[in-house]
Task: structure prediction
Amino acid sequence: MNEFLTWLLDAVQSVDPVVRTLLAGVAVMLETSILVGLVVPGDTIVIVAGTAVSSPLEAVMLGVAVVIGALIGESIGFWLGRFLGPKIRASRLGQRIGDDTWVRSERYLRKRGGPAIFLSRFLPVLHSLVPLTVGMSGFRYRRFLAWTTPACIVWAALYISVSAAAAGTYRELADKIHYAGYLFVGVIVVFLVLVFVGKKIIERLEHRHMHEDDTAPSGLLEEDVED
Result:
């Protein structure tokens, strides 16, 4: 186990740090802009890149690249929604996503407003659809960035710090205990399970909130929407 895991981590780390960081940023940009995130989660991309971090500077640079990539991707999604939203929804891909999912995204934004944009970064499916939905809604772009930027920072910092710490600890223990690889895998699995459970809890609470507030006024404020 240790031999294979060491080979795998070394293979990722052997990629030039600049190239590795840029690839992670581009991958996250694609994941958040053109619905690739419905197939390949950005979480996986960040975890793999995070295991190769060998210094605080590399961690910061990776975090910056991931956040910028996410913001560019979500901005592309926003403007695609603004200009091509109805066409994307009516396309073959949009129909495969399902009208119920689109309606859910619209209702979520309408009821929650800005906080929906922040929380969607941590919710499955919605984090890929909400930028498009926000663009279609007439929500101001500057307000959109104000809500999504801190969410992207928190998301990137969480995944990079955990994956980097797990890989670093493994490298320190690999030559001392033969089951270090299992500890590494266990830490990552536990982290992903906790993230999954957290997402489900947030999703359930938000779903309940939407049903309870069906008669409540919209969460979109006048200053959030362009004339």
